[in-house]
Amino acid sequence: MSAQKLEAAAQAMVADGKGILAIDESSPTIKKRFDTIKTECTEENRRAYRELLITCAGLEEFVSGMILFDETIRQSTSDGVPFPELMKNKGIMPGIKVDKGAKDLAGHPGEKVTEGLDGLRDRLAEYRELGAPFAKWRAVITIGDGIPSLGCIEANAHGLARYAALCQEAGLVPMVEPEVLLDGNHSIERCFEVTEATLRALFSSLHQQRVLLEGTILKASMVLSGKNAPSRAGVEAVAEQTIACLKRSVPAALPGVVFLSGGQAPQEATAHLNAMNAITGDLPWKLSFSYSRALQEPALNTWAGSAANGKSAQDALHHRAQLNSAASLGKYSEAMEKQAA
C-alpha cells in the first residue's frame, strides 16, 4: 500500500465522531468475561456473541473499525457471511490483533515484554488477504517499586516499532499500544512520568525503524492515579494531565490517538474522553476511543448468554458507542446516560 493509502486509512480510523471497538480478547480473557455471566466459553458462544456486536444496527455511525482476534476474523455469521465481509459492507474496518501476548522479561522481575515478531511478516500478509486494513500490538508497562526499568520500556518500544514497520510493509496501518497499567497505588504524577518516558521511547524507536507516522495510530492509556491510590485524581485533572503528557511526547504528524479504557468503568472512561475534547485549544491529533470492556460491558451483561436478549444487548452497545462518539467531540453530558439510545 502506498504512503497515501496508509495515511487515508489512518485518517478514516479517527474520522470525526468515530472510534474503534476492541473485540480482540484472547481465549483466556473472554473466558473470564463469560464466567461473569455464567456462560460456557465455547467456540460457538464466542462466535454468537461477536456476531451480536458486529451486526449491531447503526453502529457504523459511531465506530470506524473493530479489532478482531485471530479466531474471529476467520468466522462468519450464522447465515454464512464472513465477518470481515459483513463489516466492510457496513463501512466498518476489520482490524486484527497480532501480538502473542506479554511474557516475563528475562532479568527484569515483575516486568513484561510482548512477543510475536517471529513469523509476523507472513501472518500480516495472510490477514491482509482476509481483509484487514489495520492491526494492533499491545505492550504493557507496570508501575511499582523500582519499575518500570529503562530496559523494559526500551524492549517494548523496539518490539512495537518492529511490528509497525512490518505492518506498513504489508500495507496495514499499525495501531501501537503501549499500555501503562492502572494497577497499583501510584499517584497521577508518577503515571505522567512513566507515560511520558514510555511514549518518548516509542516514538524514538518508530523513527529509527522508519515508520511513517502519518500512517500510524497510537492507542494510549490515560494519565490516571493507580486504582489503589489513597486519593485518586478527578476527571478534569486526568484530562489536563493526559493532554499535557501527549503534547510533550507525541509528534504532531500522528493523525490520531485512541484511548484504551484500561479497567475504567464505562461512564468513567466516557467522562475522561469528553473532558479532554472539551478543553479549548487546537490539538494536532484527533482524540477518540478504542475501548473493549468500557463499550462491551453493558451489552455483555444484558446478553448473558441468551439469544433472546440479543436486541437489548445491541441497544446497550449502540447507546454506549453513541455516548463515546459524543465524548470524542466534547459533546457528552452525564444526563445523556439516562436517555434512550
Describe, in plain words, how this protein is organized in 3D.
The protein is of the alpha/beta class and 341 residues long. Helix content is 45%, strand content 15%. It has twelve helices and ten strands. It has helices at 3-13, 27-36, 43-54, 70-73, 83-90, 120-129, 150-170, 188-208, 235-249, 266-278, 293-303, 310-328; strands spanning 19-23, 63-68, 93-97, 102-104, 112-114, 134-141, 173-180, 217-220, 256-259, 286-291. It is globular, with a radius of gyration of 19 Å. The model has no long low-confidence stretch (mean pLDDT 96).
Rg from C-alpha positions?
19 Å
CATH superfamily: Aldolase class I
The beta-strand count equals 10
Q: In percent, how much strand structure appears in the residues? A: 15-25%
| Helical segment count | 12
Write down the oligomeric state.
single chain
Number of domains: 1
The CATH architecture assignment turns out to be: Alpha-Beta Barrel
Terminal CA distance:
38 Å
The main sheet orders its strands as 1-2-3-6-7-8-9-10
Most strands sheet: 8 strands, parallel, barrel
DSSP helix fraction: 40-55%
Looking at the structure, the CATH topology is TIM Barrel
Mean pLDDT: 96
Reading off the top of the CATH hierarchy, the class is best stated as Alpha Beta
Low-pLDDT ranges: none
Order of helices and strands: HEHHEHHEEEHEHEHEHEHEHH
Main structural class: alpha/beta
Structure summary:
With 341 residues, this protein is of the alpha/beta class. The chain has a single domain, classed as TIM Barrel (Alpha-Beta Barrel). It has twelve helices and ten strands.
